[in-house]
Write a structure and sequence with these properties.
34% of the residues lie in helices and 24% in strands. By secondary structure, it is of the alpha/beta class.
Length: 450
């Protein structure tokens, strides 16, 4: 039904599925008029909204591949990607034009189309969807780079299809979904589900403007947004299904959510940009098991889903599945480290996470790049201080927010520590939950790293 709401956000209000279809068809008309064809790359930079989603749908239908760039990415990384893909078209808004004009690589892209033009439909009616192979590149997105440089994650059409199939099996597909991440808007559009798209920076006054008939019944977000959601729970009384992922959540945060929405279904998703989901667990069961072990964070991950194969090699998790992304784009070193083919030429992905399996399921034990002893010490200190705004560096230095007042108690209880350093703890730029260890150490105590 074309009149059904597909998207709501504060700046545009409600956009129907019929309007998204029309915008996407017009995007194809504009692209064809400039000679854009199957196999061409399109660079995308702009504020999420109906025009952006429609533009991507239209381009995918023509067999183009969309590259999403974000302003926090290093200019050298963007230039390298452009040099390799040679995009034929740049889709952006007014701010993106000003930003792109500063970069020689973007200025060389022959066709620039404003998101505003896409909504000025000239009567385009037919939306093409040319046949493509499963390994044809659909999206290229980028990791946040909290453990190093951003990596180009490739989502082929096959990966996108299988990921949508898996997520729709395990998550709620009914009602309206409150979305913070654009990827879930694309998923909902494919499922015919309405998305209310919001930002973590929005004030509650904005949320109160959501039409009553579109009040969300489900939400897909990370712990960072969940914290703000709990503080404004009265704005979303109809939520009945929570899908939380992207980073570990403090058990206390989940418990506050359980109190606010006691009858809701709570699901913890474990995965990554390259493979989502890997495991699904009932968040109430997660908290129960972690509390029994006196863990501050939700370290219990449940069991892997049936659609994925797993292998734990020297404590580190490798995964294989139809919804797992292939080789990184343009990052040879990362492909050497995080990807490998087996005897049957199947491509496995290294999650980079240390996993301990027992009779109950999987337990997270930190990133493989972090010494296990540091992770265990961090968890012990987190449980002692009841906060995760801290990290251990070089096996002996504690950096964190609000730790200075506990200096004496910390040094006494944890004699392995030689210093306690008060500093700002930086979070990842996407979920605002996972600690950016490199940035925190560099800005908080530059001498520690050396």
């Amino acid at each position: 039904m074309p009149e059904r709401p597909a998207l709501w956000d504060l700046s545009e209000g409600t956009t129907s599925f019929g309007q998204i279809y029309q915008y996407a068809a017009h995007m194809q008309t504009l692209a064809r008029s400039h000679g854009i064809k199957k196999g061409d790359y399109a660079l995308i930079f702009g504020k999420p909204g109906s025009a952006l989603y429609a533009a991507v749908i239209g381009l995918l239908g023509l067999g183009c591949s969309a590259i999403f760039i974000e302003p926090w990415m290093a200019l050298s990384e963007i230039e390298a990607i452009i040099a390799q893909t040679k995009p034929k078209i740049y889709i952006t808004n007014f701010i993106g034009k000003l930003w792109g004009a500063r970069m020689k690589a973007i200025r060389k892209i022959p066709v620039w189309i404003s998101l505003y033009r896409i909504k000025n439909n000239n009567g385009s009616k037919n939306l093409a969807a040319i046949p493509l192979s499963e390994d044809h590149v659909g999206f290229i997105t980028f990791t946040t780079g909290t453990t190093g440089h951003s990596k180009g994650v490739v989502r082929t059409h096959g990966v996108l299809f299988h990921q949508a199939t898996v997520l729709s099996k395990y998550l709620s597909t009914h009602g309206t979904d409150l979305c913070v991440l654009p990827n879930f808007v694309f998923l909902n559009l494919s499922l015919g589900k309405c998305s209310v798209f919001v930002s973590i920076n929005d004030h509650r006054r904005k949320w109160q403007k959501i039409p009553e008939q579109l009040r969300p019944s489900s939400i897909s977000c990370g712990p960072g947004f969940l914290q703000k959601l709990i503080e404004n729970a009265d704005c979303f009384p109809d939520l009945s299904s929570f899908h939380i992922g992207g980073a570990l959540a403090p058990c206390a945060l989940y418990e506050k959510g359980f109190e606010k929405w006691p009858f809701a279904r709570w699901i913890q998703i474990y995965g990554s940009s390259e493979a989502e989901p890997v495991s699904i667990a009932d968040a109430r069961e997660v908290v129960k098991k972690c509390r029994l072990k006196s863990y501050h964070q939700s370290l219990y991950l449940g069991a892997p889903i049936s659609e994925i194969q797993t292998c734990i090699d020297e404590g580190v998790l490798w995964v294989l599945g139809d919804h797992v992304s292939p080789f990184y784009f343009g990052h040879h070193e990362a492909n050497q480290t995080h990807k490998k083919k087996d005897a049957e030429h199947r491509l496995w992905h290294n999650m980079g996470d240390r996993i301990y399996p027992d009779d109950e399921g999987w337990w997270y034990q930190g990133r493989s790049s972090q010494p296990l002893s540091d992770f265990i010490l961090e968890q012990q200190i987190s449980s002692f201080l009841k906060t995760d705004a801290l990290l251990v560096a070089n096996h002996q230095f504690l950096l964190g927010a609000g730790v200075e007042i506990h200096r004496e108690a910390l040094l006494k209880r944890f004699p392995v520590l030689t210093d306690v350093i008060e500093c700002k703890v930086y979070r990842d730029r996407r979920h605002r939950a996972r600690i950016d260890r490199e940035k925190t150490i560099k800005k908080g105590a530059p001498w520690v790293a050396g």
